[in-house]
């Protein structure tokens, strides 16, 4: 079985519209070729067009069909000449079940957002700071600003090294059979002003256990972020990368790539009343380039920290 990386799609005659959408997405040699390429690695639109000898406009149309069918993911990434789209495979199998008596268990997904200023604990090293949609709360480069009475309204925060922790309700883990946890956020490194070539190793912890360390290439600027307010100087950080962490019964994935054997069970996500999510940069690490974390009203993406929990129905 080809391993596409994230999950499975089940089709039956109870949802004919969905079944038609999936079948139509597969009914194309070009789209099958795209899936065949993405099973091995993520690729940009132009790379897919070159590999399949198809025009970029045609590839874009095929990619849109596959994305709408839930088979691939498409994310914008910063490049030398602006942003470009990178595609990644999103499923490991498609199953058509028309005539068997036993039906595949269905799932439901609940999602919400956590404001970046709603952290529960912070221990950071300057340069650092937080700002809201309309301006600074306090003088930057002093850690006490993270305890300002309005810190929950933050739309951008940054620090050089240290750790920031959020507590997330795990009520659904107690009342349902949870199959998947998905976390997504916009993030980049932290340099004076901005520097597109300023790598930083940023780690992610769940319940105090490190599940992944990813390297961000830079502190991105050069043009204003799509949601960055006009008062914020163009000589400062403008946008980040959208990163996605998925935890299920088989392990942990980052942007569709397996990165850890930690599972929902091994991370004790159902223990107590909440689980913790931490972002950090180690002082003196190989790429100790700090971090910026973006809210809904800064950067390129209309979200803060997005949480999705998938659980079985019935």
Features:
single chain, 314 residues, mainly beta, twelve-stranded antiparallel beta sheet, three-stranded antiparallel beta sheet, 15% helix, globular
Task: Give a topology summary.
Layout: E1 7-11, H1 16-26, H2 29-38, E2 43-44, H3 45-52, H4 56-68, E3 72-79, E4 82-89, E5 91-96, E6 107-114, E7 121-131, E8 156-169, H5 171-175, E9 178-188, E10 200-206, E11 209-216, E12 241-248, E13 252-254, E14 257-260, E15 274-281, E16 291-294, E17 305-312
Parallel strand pairs: 1-5
Antiparallel strand pairs: 2-4, 3-4, 6-17, 7-8, 8-15, 8-16, 9-12, 9-16, 9-17, 10-11, 10-15, 12-13, 13-14
| Percent range for β-strand residues | 35-45%
The strand count comes to: 17
Mean pLDDT: 91
The string of secondary-structure elements, in order, is: EHHEHHEEEEEEHEEEEEEEEE
**Low-confidence stretches at least 5 residues in length (pLDDT < 50)?**
1-5
**For the report, how would you describe the main beta sheet?**
12 strands, antiparallel
Helix content: 10-25%
Globular, elongated, flat, extended or rod-shaped: what is the shape?
A: globular
Report the span from N to C terminus: 28 Å
SS class: mainly beta
Integer-rounded radius of gyration: 21 Å
Number of helices: 5
């Amino acid at each position: 079985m080809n391993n596409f990386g994230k999950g499975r799609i089940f089709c039956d005659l109870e949802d004919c519209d969905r079944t038609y959408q999936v079948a139509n997405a597969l009914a194309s040699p070009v789209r099958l070729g795209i899936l065949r390429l993405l099973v091995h690695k993520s690729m940009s639109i132009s790379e897919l067009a070159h590999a399949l000898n198809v025009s970029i406009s045609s590839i874009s149309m095929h990619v849109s069909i596959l994305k709408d069918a839930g088979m691939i993911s498409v994310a914008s990434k910063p490049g030398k000449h602006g942003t470009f789209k990178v595609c990644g495979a999103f499923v490991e199998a498609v199953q058509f079940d028309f005539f068997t008596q036993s039906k595949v268990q269905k799932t439901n997904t609940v999602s919400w957002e956590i404001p970046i200023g709603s952290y529960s604990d912070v221990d950071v090293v300057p340069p650092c700071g937080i700002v809201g949609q309309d301006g600074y709360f306090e003088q930057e480069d002093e850690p006490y600003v993270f305890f300002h009475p309005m810190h929950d309204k933050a739309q951008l925060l940054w620090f050089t090294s240290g750790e920031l922790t959020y507590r997330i309700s795990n009520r659904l883990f107690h009342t349902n059979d949870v199959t998947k946890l998905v976390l997504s956020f916009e993030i980049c490194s932290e340099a004076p002003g901005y520097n597109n070539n300023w790598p930083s190793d940023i780690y992610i912890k769940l319940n105090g256990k490190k599940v992944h360390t990813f390297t961000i290439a830079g502190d991105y600027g050069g043009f204003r972020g799509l949601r960055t307010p006009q008062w914020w100087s163009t000589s400062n950080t403008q946008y980040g990368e959208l990163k996605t962490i998925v935890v299920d019964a088989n392990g942990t994935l980052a942007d569709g790539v397996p990165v850890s054997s930690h599972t929902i069970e091994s991370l004790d996500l159902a223990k107590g009343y909440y689980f913790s999510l931490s972002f950090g940069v180690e002082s003196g690490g190989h790429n100790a380039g700090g971090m910026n974390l973006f809210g809904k009203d800064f950067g390129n993406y209309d979200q803060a920290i997005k949480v999705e929990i998938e659980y079985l129905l019935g």
